[in-house]
Write a structure and sequence with these properties.
This protein is mainly α. Helices cover 80% and strands 0% of the residues. It is built from 4 helices and no strands. Helix 1 packs antiparallel against helix 2 and helix 2 runs antiparallel to helix 4. The protein is elongated. The N and C termini lie far apart (52 Å).
Length: 105
């Protein structure tokens, strides 16, 4: 096992633990609260980042790029792209929530 694989497994583990905490926290918020909606988006972000790490470790561990070519990386791009778009939407929601409560102008 090389360092990249070890770090990838560590990231997957951290992602799964984080997902457990956020799912647990999400259950504690009222149904239509802003925090619940932001937490749901955070679940999506963590899930896709964890999928990205999982796919990357599998791809590297089994040398799939050499077997299947560059196309094997496309799922990684999809996972990370969805995570970043969700981060953008979540940041916008956080800003709008702050604006709603008069925290920002």
């Amino acid at each position: 096992m090389n360092l990249e694989t070890i770090l990838g497994i560590a990231m997957i583990t951290i992602g799964l633990i984080s997902l457990g905490y956020v799912v647990n926290a999400e259950k504690k918020f009222p149904k239509e609260s802003e925090l619940k909606m932001i937490t749901i988006r955070l679940i999506v972000i963590i899930s896709f980042l964890t999928c990205f790490s999982f796919w990357h470790v599998i791809r590297e561990a089994f040398h799939l790029k050499e077997k299947f070519g560059d196309k094997i990386e496309y799922p990684e791009y999809a996972f990370i792209s969805i995570a970043f778009v969700t981060i953008l939407l979540t940041a916008k929601d956080i800003y709008n929530t702050a604006k709603k409560f008069g925290i920002t102008e």
